[in-house]
Design brief:
Two copies of one chain form a homodimer.
Chain A: H1 5-23, H2 28-35, H3 39-51, E1 55-61, E2 69-74, E3 80-86, E4 90-96, E5 102-109, H4 117-135, E6 140-146, E7 150-152, E8 156-158, H5 171-179, E9 185-188, H6 190-201, E10 209-215, E11 219-225, E12 228-230, H7 261-264, H8 266-275, H9 284-296, H10 300-324, E13 328-332, H11 334-351, H12 357-362, E14 364-367, H13 374-388
Parallel strand pairs in A: 3-6, 6-9, 10-13, 13-14
Antiparallel strand pairs in A: 1-2, 3-4, 4-5, 7-8, 10-11, 11-12
């Protein structure tokens, strides 16, 4: 409840650095204009960011008669953040510089049978060893890890991790011990990390009320207000995939019936294609690609599947629009990437039948078209946010 | 997007004054403890609140050896705020002192045929004339008005006002001209005013993530984060009543089908009672009282109605819990008051079948049991918040 000038300072710092990452090299004056902050505030924040090793001066530009202005950029040669995307069949680890550019990556395949915390941690550690060997003595500033399921950020995994059935696992402590790294480890689930990724490097930058709809094997949403991830009381906000659109609907893996995920999650989409007479074969991703190709070719079962899924998605998205009234809705997740060309236009066409006029008009709709792994990027951005929190213990110029 | 120290200052000011209204007389030291702010910050805010005429020193208390501490209270003898509850059949106007105590009230009945903005404004003006005559030369600091439908706060009514069919009415300007009052007029709908009322004078005080479910003729929610009303991009956040729980469900007056309001709004409740063999006669409020009495007497149709409505309400509330993960859910509105003894326990019993474990455990559930008109109180509190915004133009001690 308590609001402090530190919160404001950190929020402004995020805004400045996000613009800097997007538009570097740039000047304090332009940053002030873009963030709507005073030049004095920006200058104080930049001084602290330089002191923290996150930003560097990279040159000067003519200011049209006055003193040349310093040009600023993220310190790409400085420390790195690690982002880890843990899914049920793989671990992808990426190292990012302070411009959020990938400088290295490693991937581990996991067998479906490898479901214990110890096995998962083993794969993360193996990927980390590869990357550390190549990074040499470059400092690691923090590690962000995205885990499936509901994640207790201070502790480990709680609630249902879909196929793993972990309960009360002190994952963060176990991982920190195994990595033997003296840097903070941040945990969250993909709904949260993708949303943080959108705030730092996607369409969500500068958006006041952001909703990210994440369509994958599981389905959920990320909400962010004022440029900051909204976690809810116990970090379980965003479980939009487990909101009901029809109590008489199909069984969901969460135990309830008629959840959005039971209609638009990848298994539900492929089940519907099967029921309509399609041929969903191979792995989930192979089958989804086959569905997209069949739709492209005009196969009736595929067309009907896309229309049915779009209708469920529109009903579910309208519920979120009517309740939250966001400025921007971003569609994300691997199902959006695989099936978006078919699904997104059908979805948009159906939204007006479900959403009220005011929130429908207010919300821009975007589909994430980046090739990047937003889960790993967002996990690294979580670590960056944690690192920036040190602004509140170093420097003093912008503390007023 | 921009966050300023003014926002923080206003938010802290709200927190201090809310505690002061609840616990007066009290000291700066106790306020600091209750709000988790420093004594210096509280002292600066109190100095400005005294300068603004909102707070007064009312005495001293022994501090156990040191200097006696000043006791503070809201300036109950100072200016008043007007709160107006405009419904489809009445206008209730209440005048509040700065302790949010009602000092006067007036009520106008409206005929169902009186649906023009001019007629509604006429009734507000008539109620205002009565109260102004009695207030004498006591200053009116602001006027808050709650209107049904979707309200454009800066301008007037937009979207659907249920039975009135107003579009693009510059209500605020028309009302300000008619009242001939040189004070600000604040407009909003009952979802928003009740929620602000809960923040100032209800269970929502001090709660970080608040959801208020408002059950009446219409149905909706109010959300508040960090002690401040969440309006969404275009002030239409909270249209929870128009989220779908079954696309094949009954027609809703918004045009869609299967909205929560089409199950748990007063007309829907009474229709279900009829269908189950009950006798819903008289006005809506009379029929709802008859339903409550029939339930109390164990009438099978009434029992079945309450169970069915509780099931729909649980499905809809679980959707909000899963998406928003609030700390507190308050049930409010006239249907809650009339039918709550029957409905609320049945609702709570069914919630676990729909909500995920984490958000269910996190959310306390409360039923508003106050006798006060929370719509009018909240409208007056909106005017008070507007008045406190002047802190940012007077005084300077707490501006840092």
């Amino acid at each position: 409840m308590k609001s402090t000038s530190r919160d404001i300072r950190l929020r402004n710092c995020f805004a400045v650095l996000r613009h800097l990452i997007a538009d570097a090299p740039t000047s304090r004056q332009i940053l002030a204009r873009e963030t709507d902050l005073s030049v004095a505030t920006v200058s104080n924040l930049v001084t602290d960011l330089i002191e923290l090793g996150v930003v560097v001066e990279v040159g000067r530009e003519d200011s049209g008669g006055g003193r040349p202005r310093a040009l600023l950029a993220p310190h790409a040669g400085g420390g790195v953040m690690i982002g880890v995307d843990v899914a049920e069949t793989y671990v992808q680890l990426e190292a990012y510089d302070l411009a959020l550019t990938v400088v290295d990556r490693a991937e581990e395949r996991m067998e479906a049978s490898e479901t214990s915390p110890d096995q998962v941690i083993g794969h993360i550690a193996a990927a980390m060893d590869q990357v550390r060997g190549r990074l040499g003595d470059r400092a690691i500033l923090g590690v962000g890890v995205s885990l499936p399921g509901q994640v207790d950020v201070t502790w480990g995994v709680s609630g249902f991790a879909p196929n793993w059935d972990w309960h009360d696992v002190p994952f963060r402590r176990l991982l920190t011990e195994r990595l033997r790294l003296d840097v903070p480890v941040y945990l969250d689930n993909p709904l949260k990390t993708i949303t943080v990724g959108e705030l730092w490097f996607g369409d969500g930058r500068g958006v006041d009320r952001l909703a990210v709809l994440i369509l994958g094997t599981g389905v959920g949403a990320g909400l962010a207000f004022g440029g900051q991830l909204y976690r809810g009381a116990t970090n379980s906000a965003g479980e939009w995939g487990h909101t009901t659109i029809d109590p008489a609907g199909p069984q969901c893996r969460c135990g309830a019936t008629g959840c959005i995920e039971a209609y638009v999650g990848a298994p539900a989409i492929l089940r519907q294609w099967d029921e309509f007479g399609g041929r969903a074969a191979g792995s989930q991703t192979e089958a989804m690609a086959a569905l997209a190709a069949a739709w492209e070719a005009g196969e009736p079962a595929a067309v009907r599947t896309v229309e049915t899924v779009a209708e469920s998605l529109a009903a579910g998205a309208a519920n979120l629009l009517n309740l939250v009234n966001p400025d921007l809705v971003v569609l994300d997740g691997w199902v959006t990437a695989a099936l978006g060309d078919a699904l997104v236009p059908e979805f948009e066409r159906r939204l007006a039948a479900h959403a009220l006029e005011a929130p429908l008009k207010a919300a821009r709709l975007k589909r994430n078209t980046q090739e990047r792994n937003m889960v790993a990027l967002g996990a690294a951005a979580l670590a960056l946010e944690g690192h920036l929190n040190r602004l509140n213990t170093v420097g003093s110029r912008s503390r007023r």
